Q: What sequence folds into this?
């Protein structure tokens, strides 16, 4: 499950199409930079005749508390309010960004007592429905106040169960309306693969249910199942972090590939950049960087996995290096090329793509004082690490290369200067992509031939099969040699069994 937030307008449009008569249709008009007010009013005549509500639609929480909602206003006042804020820098908590998208809706007049709160969210064991008979801006700590109904996977709560579990404090004249609404809302929630859906306030007045304020997330991995029901879905960047062209480029590569290529820029001026293989590894590396005090300097989050080709990895690496070398940092920058032990990704192939990008950016890497730390294992990792070591000798920037003998996240503490750099391990001798167990310095075969199997008293058991070297008294199928038989290239093999 990949939960991605959607705009309020998108969420309300989905409910308009699929919720049926359980609630009044949401009327709204999105306004963005360049919108023609005359056209909007012509298409939505109620904007001239009714009182309005206007608010930003950019994934901002607690807009009412922040003074980012204008209510009970006329069209002229709404236009003036939007114009005063459009493309203006706004501080929301620690984030600073520009307001570019607004939502205009009709004002629904109602007393505070008609407001309530409902939220549905998913977790690994099922779904949880939260309800509180009071809603609005001053609801406070919802987790402490709300009553909950746990819904198991593949279970559908009945109207009776919803009424009993959630609506004990709701007045009797509204219980049936709200219970039917929550049941219909949950059915849509499951059918459209929502992962989070919050309505605050939910207003019940005049026998109608009104959805006034909404926040929602969808499981983006369900797109192949829900494409027709969803239509075109936009997943906006969080407020204060505008989507970059480079992110869009990687997303486009990802969409056209069977591999996985993800990139999110967190802090373009950050010192610590990552190029991590594997979704799980990307989380572990990011957590380790933050745990060691590097959160404020972490520049990006992303991963490449699923056996991308050399060209795809080159494009991915080139994009990251381009962003990394746009700004200088007084302490220089760090690039962590990490990963666990790959299952089927060809490490040599992907590393060749990364090396190609490193060579292309060589002058900028030197100019920006970039240090590179590498740790990887998996199919053909010996060849990949060899290629990386070789380019390190010619690139002119420090490249520290480690394999599976080094813990996956150990390079993070080395990169941050918390742990001293150990002597780099002696590279294992290889030919093409294959490890030579005996190494290049093995002694020449003995001139004498010995039987392959030999009894403890020294007599031969098979004179037709012989191998080089002296017999050591060990058998191939002993517990001591199990690691070698199971494919561990670093395990000790009796010398009389080495080819």
A:
């Amino acid at each position: 499950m990949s939960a991605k937030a959607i705009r309020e307008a998108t969420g309300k449009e989905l409910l308009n199409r699929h919720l049926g008569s359980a609630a009044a249709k949401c009327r709204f008009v999105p306004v963005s930079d360049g919108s023609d007010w005359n056209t909007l009013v012509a298409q939505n005549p109620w904007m001239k005749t009714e009182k309005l509500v206007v608010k930003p639609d950019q994934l901002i929480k607690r807009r009412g508390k922040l003074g980012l909602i204008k209510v009970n206003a006329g069209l002229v006042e709404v236009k003036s309010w939007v114009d005063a804020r459009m493309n203006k820098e706004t501080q929301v908590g620690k984030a600073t960004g520009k307001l570019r998208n607004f939502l205009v809706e009709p004002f629904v007049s109602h007393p505070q007592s008609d407001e309530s709160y409902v939220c549905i969210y998913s977790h690994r064991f099922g779904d949880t429905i939260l309800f509180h008979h009071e809603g609005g801006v001053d609801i406070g700590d919802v987790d402490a106040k709300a009553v909950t109904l746990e819904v198991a996977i593949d279970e559908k709560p009945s109207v009776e169960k919803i009424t009993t579990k959630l609506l004990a404090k709701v007045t009797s004249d509204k219980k049936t309306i709200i219970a039917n609404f929550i049941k219909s809302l949950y059915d849509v929630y499951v059918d459209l693969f929502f992962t989070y859906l919050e309505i605050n306030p939910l207003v019940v007045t005049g026998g109608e249910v009104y959805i006034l304020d909404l926040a929602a997330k969808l499981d983006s991995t369900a797109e192949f199942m829900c494409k027709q029901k969803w239509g075109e879905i936009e997943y906006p960047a969080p407020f204060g972090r505008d989507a970059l062209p480079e992110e869009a480029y990687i997303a486009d590569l990802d969409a056209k590939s069977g591999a996985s290529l993800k990139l999110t820029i967190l802090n373009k001026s950050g010192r610590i950049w990552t190029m991590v293989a594997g979704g799980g590894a990307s989380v572990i590396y990011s957590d380790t960087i933050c745990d060691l005090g590097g959160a404020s300097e972490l520049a990006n989050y992303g991963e490449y996995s699923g056996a991308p080709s050399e060209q795809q990895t080159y494009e991915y690496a080139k994009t990251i290096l381009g962003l990394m070398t746009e700004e200088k940092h007084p302490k220089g920058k760090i690039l962590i090329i990490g990963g666990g032990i790959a299952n089927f990704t060809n490490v040599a192939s992907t590393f060749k793509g990364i090396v190609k990008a490193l060579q292309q950016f060589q002058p900028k890497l030197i100019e920006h004082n970039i240090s590179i730390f590498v740790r990887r294992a998996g199919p053909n990792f010996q060849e990949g690490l060899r290629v990386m070591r070789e380019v390190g000798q010619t690139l002119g920037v420090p490249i520290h290369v480690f394999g599976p003998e080094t813990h996956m996240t150990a390079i993070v503490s080395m990169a941050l200067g918390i742990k001293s750099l150990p002597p780099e391990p002696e590279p294992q001798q290889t030919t093409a992509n294959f490890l030579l167990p005996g190494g290049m310095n093995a002694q020449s075969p003995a001139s004498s031939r010995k039987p392959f199997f030999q009894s403890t008293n020294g007599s031969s058991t098979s004179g037709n099969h012989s191998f080089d070297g002296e017999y050591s008294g060990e058998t191939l199928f002993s517990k001591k040699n199990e690691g070698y038989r199971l494919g561990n290239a670093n395990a000790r093999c009796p010398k009389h069994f080495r080819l």
Summary: DSSP finds 16 helices and 23 strands in the chain.
